[in-house]
């Protein structure tokens, strides 16, 4: 597989490629995959063989089932050949061990996000040319790290995002220990609107509330601005094709006996939305996961594919439409959960029920009863109808405020009861009242904790009070944190039950007790009254 028995026979080029691949932890799997795919005679992988294992089998591709253009299945059919042609260079009709390693490194190796996004757009451009679509992207030079110029239309961006979803879902499916079921294509309109809002000039802005025919708009989105939007809003988007290549090669190495099964690489591209809660569907969860990295991204990714009812219960801590509205109901369900939380709020303007929006708050710790702001980190999200993320600015740390009723009976200056995120006391960027009836959203000028930007389209400078439709809270700390919360709640229920019980044995003679005397005084209608004297 390109290795030699003597270290002196290994070329510097091969040694460097193996060193980089080893740093990713994938070298053993790459060695096995190469040995399975390569021709024993030529010691190289036939190009068509590698293309086969990067391919897809498509179902649900009838015109009635699709929410993407009819050209999308054609694009997917050229994905495998484009990956091989663009990244796995071959001049001899086969891919040698060194070329195989270099191709993997280009796709899945560590690199800066801007370079990965540039490669993703180059890949999409090559696929579009093979599918005989109008050429809108141009490579500036023939070098491997060459830049790309041109533009995309909203419909092109939708197909690019849908292609990234399929590659992302494919990598999750191949790595999953249990069956994820069919994926389908989620609605990515909120991401397309986000790109339009960020890339279009101010004098060409569109009405983001009227998005029924948004994909038919003839709006040119410059590639340079798309890259800037992606780096700010969905920085993990370019990881999708790298994860896809990595997962496919590792699967080949680990499941040689399953490679000929027809349903291994089968994908449903009909419109389908899975959801954990009423507000968090797979498209929205995916968008949020693209803003994160590491364990938190994996947890929100799992929320896209709830395969059983108990898995939904592991994530969904509170839903106002099921558990009841109000801070006390909310608190009884989230108390004791010491892990990251995703809070989703759906609301509409008081006098305009048609303008409904969803905002989200991600906090990296559990909630506490405080009359001051606290927290270590977090993010605000505009989720629907347009998606944006507002990360910490680093200027202040007023991440979250969660205050129940005060424990003392009287306070000269009582602190407000409710939930708040960003801003300052009395001037919060987001404030939810204790009845969960109203949410107040203020302009970002009052907030130095999170970056600036509107939480919903056409947000003005003045505070806006909106009517809450629903509130959901999802726990992203994993099963262990959920189990700890369950134990905590059982312990609290036991203590509460014990406090309700009165053990009469602990008292002396009941007839002589002060309690008996007080009860007699209250219950005796003939007791002496002041007016009778």
Structural overview:
It is a single chain. It is elongated and about 110 Å long. Helix 6 (97-108) packs across helix 11 and helix 9 packs across helix 10. Residues 2-8 have low confidence and may be disordered. The protein is α+β, with helices and mostly antiparallel strands and 533 residues long. Helix content is 38%, strand content 17%. The chain has 18 helices and 17 strands. Strands 8, 9, 10, 11, 12, 13, 14, 15, 16 and 17 form a ten-stranded antiparallel beta sheet that branches. A three-stranded antiparallel beta sheet has the order 4-5-6. It has a two-stranded antiparallel sheet with strand order 1-3.
Assembly classification = single chain
Shape: elongated
Largest sheet: 10 strands, antiparallel
Structural class from helices and strands? alpha+beta
Number of strands: 17
Count of helical stretches: 18
Strand coverage percent: 15-25%
- Rounded mean pLDDT is 83
**Cα-atom radius of gyration:** 29 Å
How far apart are the first and last residues' alpha carbons, in Å? 111 Å
- Report the uncertain regions: 2-8
Helix content: 25-40%
InterPro entries: TLDc_dom
Protein name: TLDc domain-containing protein
Organism: Anisodus tanguticus
Pfam families: TLD
Question: What's the arrangement of secondary structure elements?
Answer:
Blueprint: H1 12-23, H2 27-37, E1 45-46, H3 47-52, E2 57-59, H4 72-77, H5 79-87, E3 94-95, H6 97-108, H7 113-130, E4 137-139, E5 148-152, H8 154-175, H9 189-199, E6 221-222, H10 223-233, H11 239-254, E7 266-268, H12 282-289, H13 295-302, H14 309-315, E8 316-319, H15 320-323, H16 327-334, E9 341-349, E10 352-363, E11 378-384, E12 388-390, E13 401-403, E14 418-424, E15 427-433, E16 438-441, E17 464-475, H17 479-500, H18 514-523
Parallel strand pairs: 2-7
Antiparallel strand pairs: 1-3, 4-5, 5-6, 8-17, 9-10, 9-17, 10-11, 11-12, 13-14, 14-15, 15-16, 16-17
Helix pairs in contact: 1-6, 2-11, 5-7, 6-11, 7-10, 8-9, 8-11, 9-10, 12-13
Domain TLDc: 290-477
Protein name: TLDc domain-containing protein
Pfam families: TLD (PF07534)
């Amino acid at each position: 597989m390109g290795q030699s028995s003597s270290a002196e026979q290994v070329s510097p080029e091969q040694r460097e490629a193996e060193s980089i691949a080893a740093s990713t932890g994938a070298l053993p799997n790459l060695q096995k995959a190469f040995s399975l795919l390569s021709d024993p005679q030529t010691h190289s992988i036939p190009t068509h063989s590698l293309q086969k294992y990067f391919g897809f089998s498509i179902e649900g591709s009838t015109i009635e089932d699709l929410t993407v253009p009819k050209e999308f299945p054609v694009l997917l059919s050229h994905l495998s050949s484009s990956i091989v042609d663009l990244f796995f260079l071959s001049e001899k009709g086969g891919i040698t061990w060194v070329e195989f390693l270099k191709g993997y490194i280009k796709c899945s190796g560590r690199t800066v996000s801007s370079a990965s996004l540039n490669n993703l757009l180059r890949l999409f451009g090559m696929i579009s040319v093979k599918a005989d679509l109008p050429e809108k992207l141009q490579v500036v030079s023939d070098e491997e790290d060459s830049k790309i110029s041109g533009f995309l239309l909203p419909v092109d961006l939708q197909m690019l995002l849908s292609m990234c979803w399929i590659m992302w879902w494919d990598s999750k499916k191949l790595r999953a220990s249990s069956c994820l079921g069919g994926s389908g294509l989620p609605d990515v309109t909120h991401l397309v609107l986000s790109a339009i809002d960020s890339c279009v000039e101010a004098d060409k802005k569109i009405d983001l509330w009227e998005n029924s025919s948004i994909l038919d708009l003839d709006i040119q989105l410059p590639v340079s601005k798309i890259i800037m939007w992606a780096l700010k809003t969905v920085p993990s988007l370019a990881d999708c094709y790298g994860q896809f290549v990595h997962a496919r090669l590792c699967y080949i190495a680990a499941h040689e006996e399953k490679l000929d099964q027809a349903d291994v690489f089968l994908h449903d591209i009909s419109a389908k939305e899975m959801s954990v809660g009423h507000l968090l569907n797979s498209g929205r969860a995916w968008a949020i996961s693209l803003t994160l990295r590491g364990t938190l991204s994996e947890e929100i990714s799992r929320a896209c594919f709830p395969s059983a009812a108990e898995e939904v219960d592991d994530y969904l801590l509170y839903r106002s439409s099921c558990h009841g509205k109000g801070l006390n109901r909310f608190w009884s369900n989230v108390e004791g959960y010491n892990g990251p939380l995703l809070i989703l709020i759906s609301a509409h303007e008081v006098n305009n029920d048609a303008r409904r929006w969803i905002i989200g708050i991600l906090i990296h710790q559990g909630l506490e009863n405080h009359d001051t702001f606290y927290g270590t980190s977090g993010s605000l999200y505009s989720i629907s109808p347009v998606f944006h993320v507002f990360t910490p600015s680093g200027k202040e740390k007023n991440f979250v405020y969660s205050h129940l009723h005060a424990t003392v009976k009287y306070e000269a200056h009582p602190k407000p009861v409710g939930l708040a995120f960003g801003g300052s006391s009395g001037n919060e960027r987001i404030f939810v009242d204790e009845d969960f009836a109203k949410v107040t959203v203020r302009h970002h000028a009052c907030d130095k904790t999170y970056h600036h930007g509107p939480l919903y389209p056409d947000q003005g400078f003045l505070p806006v009070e909106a009517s809450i439709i629903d509130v959901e809270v999802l726990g992203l700390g994993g099963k262990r944190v959920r189990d700890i919360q369950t134990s905590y709640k059982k312990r609290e229920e036991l203590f509460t039950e014990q406090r309700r019980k009165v053990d009469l044995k602990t008292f002396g003679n009941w007839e002589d007790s002060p309690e008996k005397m007080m009860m007699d005084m209250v219950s005796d209608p003939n007791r002496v009254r002041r007016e009778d004297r």
